[in-house]
Batch of 2 targets.
Target 1
Amino acid sequence: MVSRVIPVDDFDLVIFGATGDLAHRKILPGLFRRFKAGQIPATSRIIGAARTAQDDDAFRAEAAGAIREFGGVTGEDPQLAEFLSLLGYVAIDARGEGGWQELKARMRPGAVHAFYFSVAPALFGDIAERLAGHGIADDDSRIVVEKPFGRDLASARALNATLAQHFHEHQIYRIDHYLGKETVQNLMAVRFANVLFEPLWNAQFIDHVQITVAETVGVAGRGSYYDKSGAIRDMVQNHLMQLLCLIAMEPPYHFDPDAVRDEKLKVIRALEAVPPQDIVRGQYRGHDDDYLKDAENPESRTESYVAMKVRIANWRWQGTPFYLRTGKKLRARTSEIAIIFKEPPHSIFDDSGQPKANELVIRLQPNEGMNLKVMIKEPGPGGMRLVQVPLDMSFADALGPDGADMPDAYERLIMDVIRGNQTLFMRGDEVEAAWAWTDPIINAWEDSKRRPEPYDPGSSGPDEALRLMHRDNRRWREIRS
Ligand code: BG6
């Protein structure tokens, strides 16, 4: 398979927070990979902006270090020097006036202008105001904002209102990096580019859906941020919510930003409130790996794991629960969506050949692929014995080198910003609706003063999460890589 790379238009991209972790780990290495792929015109400019006083060359050296460390560049790569020549740097004071005129002078008329806010959300308003106030951004400019987008409905609304003072909604790109993952986009391709699944994609044929995002990492190193957040704010309100939307939404009339986002919004608005008995929160507790130590807060009640049963109140999904779970320090790093179909309504076989329900598992990471479990006859004489076998497809095997070498989410998303395509970005009303659903869950928990259930690091999470399923005569799929 030959991958098709369509170069984007000539652009000036300003990265606020260019000396920070996200820029080093994701943004700069991602841009370099797109440059190598031939997607970035050699006339484009990438301008780092941060408080540190340094010149272009110092920033280029810093970027080279980050690209080597996080971009998998070993040895001499002649394209690295070429890429670095696109880079420049302006020392800027987000809350003062220093540096803004210099930034303005660097922006080239005629190029696409994008401003990446890779900074603490508290600075979003200051930067937006100065970009507009100094006449650096105009009605065609784009801004990119990172999560966390608020910590509840009120703060998300305030943030939307602040940005709206200076930018129109069509200029604002709210990143949820899960939407940039190739296999997450594949959910839409699987559903809407095949005739096979959609007729069965409803409560009549689907017993339940399981969405799992399991991580092996803990929170050590970012404990103070994480402890104020927890799994619901950090993962459910955004990443798992987006996965849920893509699985549950109605077919949009077109693969167009607002058509897709309108359908996602309808799903979020149809989510029922989650009663306390349908949620389990956990905290990894062990001798070496201990949440309380990692969070540096011996009294913490913040969850590093959450499992919940979610219902969608609409015609398509009435009676089909969605079970979501995500956690840190679990047995394996794996993200998957499992669609568990209903059992055939009647079996023509005797008891020894009872058909089992079909399962469609979409593996998002690692080893991206799809697996459909179907019943067949066990080979050999001796009657009709049925056995369930997987129709297993790894994208790497099916697509050759392109399938194994999938672009990182940030690469795709930044190129979409330059192209002016908002399909894979969250709209303001979507983010607010997501908070409107999670706020009561979070508040009820905080009011209850309960402690999360402890679970062993390296396990599948707390036993209570197993019971959440057993109660409904169902079981979680095993967490394994
Ligand atoms: C981030 C969360 O948004 O997503 C992290 O803040 C989490 O806590 C990360 O580890 C997971 O992303 P990925 O791409 O590694 O699955």
Target 2
Amino acid sequence: MTLRQNNKLRLAVLISGGGTNLQALIDRARDARLAAEIVVVASDRADALGLVRAQRAGIPVHVVDYRSCLQRDAAQLASQELPVDLRQLDRTQNILRQQDSKKRLLHLGRLVLAEKDLLAVLRPYRPDLVCLAGFMRLMTPYFLSQFNREQELRVLNIHPAMLPAFPGQHGYEDTFNYGCKWGGVTVHFVDEGEDTGPIIAQAGYPIWPGDDVETIRQRGLQLEYEVYAQCVNWLAAGQVHVARRASGRLYTVITDPLYRTIVSQWLQQSLT
Ligand code: GAR
């Protein structure tokens, strides 16, 4: 997939919290280690510290009030104009698994309303990529369909575990509590499931005796910063190709001749 060969990508970065991944992208964009420009930062929480980081860097920020959207009751939802048919959307999503279809459709409708606001915020900035960086909300296929085309995927996520192990919101805790001897970080395209999309890159780190969740989080975060920026650069260079296995599953091939060197460097970094 080539988005803008030899050109800077326009990134929209979505956050929910501290924003150290955002900061790493800002720093790399500033000193030209990133082939991209961050054109907008949006958060689902007004108190996300990452918003301050973005403002300090002169990047426009927006808050989309997910909490109030998710509190709407069925009557409020019915009075709103939804941009999609919820039943149809429900057939393509794999993020909500409640048995009760009424509850599921209600939740889906609330998410779509929040996403409608989010899209209105992002659209004027014409992002090439949407990068989730600690954004703790599920994306529905409605949101994704506004950016993705068949095998041209444009929404990325950084996940703090070696997927497909430990999807969800507590990657470091789950890795540590399971007793893993190695942890990992994953950058992947977002698809209709929770942390199930095609993997772009992964890096692992050892878990030593005496480590705790905080020490492994710090080790992992240092890797997250490197791997996320590298994936953006590969996309900017047209070096991420999406293909399909016979099973139907999408996967990626990185065509950077330096791929092995870069992955070896991540391994070295994790050992020092
Ligand atoms: C990061 O560890 C990121 O991988 C994780 O949240 C943290 C955000 O930190 N994301 C998820 O768990 C997504 N499921 P940051 O705000 O300092 O970048």
